[in-house]
Structures are given as C-alpha cells and as structure tokens.
Design goal:
about 170 residues; alpha+beta; three-stranded antiparallel sheet; three-stranded mixed sheet; 6 helices; nucleotide-binding; zinc-finger; ATP-binding; RNR_NrdR-like
C-alpha cells in the first residue's frame, strides 16, 4: 500500500477492524518513511457474469428489486427483502468464487424466497425457470405441497406437534 502523503511503497498495519456486516476490513496504517497515518478499507469484490458475457458488480439492491416484483401484493416487507438479499449474498460468497453466473444468483434466490412466501416463490420461479404451461405450475405446486407434508411429518416425529394432536 502506497502512502498517500509521500508515495512510499511500504506501510505498516497498526490496527484492523471488521465492519459490522463483515464484508469489509478497515485498516489503520502508518508510513515508516514520513510517519503519518492513514486508513484503508478493503472489500472483496463479487462479479456477476450475465448471459451476454457482460460483467457487473454484485448488488443486494438489484436482488431485492427483482424479488420485490414477485412479492407485489404479498405480506413481505422491505426488511424481509433486505434479509433475503443478505442471505443470497452470503450463500454466493460462501461458494468462494469471485465471479458468479447470473443464473446461479437466481438459484440462490429460490430457496430463501420459498421460505419467505410461497406465492412470491411461484411467481419468481415461473419467470426464472421459464414456465411454459400449466403443467409447470402444477409440478411446482405439487413439490411445495410435498415439502410442506414432509415438514409436518418431521414435526410429528420430533414430537413438537404431538400436544396439538392430543388436544383434538
């Protein structure tokens, strides 16, 4: 890191702190030549490769905007969308790649959106997965129902719903 004051190519890290969201590191540095201190902020970049081959930086806001359309008229708040966008970014960064296909972002959105709102999930999936017929919708709805039934059975086995059954 070059000193911004004397352009010395060397500096010493005095202090490092991670940001609250964990996506950047602020470092306090000191130049051994002039003795002045300065701060740097380091972030890891995540690049999205679009279908056309063009690249652009990943944006949580863009994820939220795309999902917001699917959530119109649904009981989903802006906070819910912000959390969903954060989960999507964390799962993408967890893959460890600096470049990611736009298609993979769509796949990363589907899981959290399905948990958030099933109707919004169907809307998003219908566009993202290019549903072409009623059968595509029926297959997606059948899969949602099967997952819901599996979750209900799991709750029964775990005993969390046993008291509800005995009350009937």
């Amino acid at each position: 890191m070059h000193c911004p004051f004397c352009r010395n190519p060397d500096s010493r890290v005095v202090d490092s702190r991670t940001s609250d969201d964990g996506l950047s590191i602020k470092r306090r540095r000191q130049c051994p030549e002039c003795g002045r201190r300065f701060s740097t902020v380091e972030t890891s970049s995540l690049t999205v490769v679009k279908r056309s081959g063009a690249t652009e930086p990943f944006s949580r806001d863009k994820v939220a905007a795309g999902v917001r359309k699917a959530c119109q008229g649904r009981p989903v708040s802006d906070d819910d969308l912000a959390l969903l966008s954060q989960r999507v970014e964390e799962s993408i960064r967890g893959a460890g790649s600096a470049e990611i296909d736009a298609n993979e972002i769509g796949l990363a959105i589907l899981g959290p959106l399905r948990e958030l709102d099933e109707v919004a999930y169907l809307r998003f999936a219908s566009v993202y997965q290019d549903f072409g017929s009623l059968e595509d919708f029926e297959a997606a709805i059948t899969a949602l129902r099967a997952d819901r039934e599996d979750a209900a059975r799991t709750d029964l086995v775990d005993g969390s719903s046993v008291s509800a059954l005995s009350a009937d």
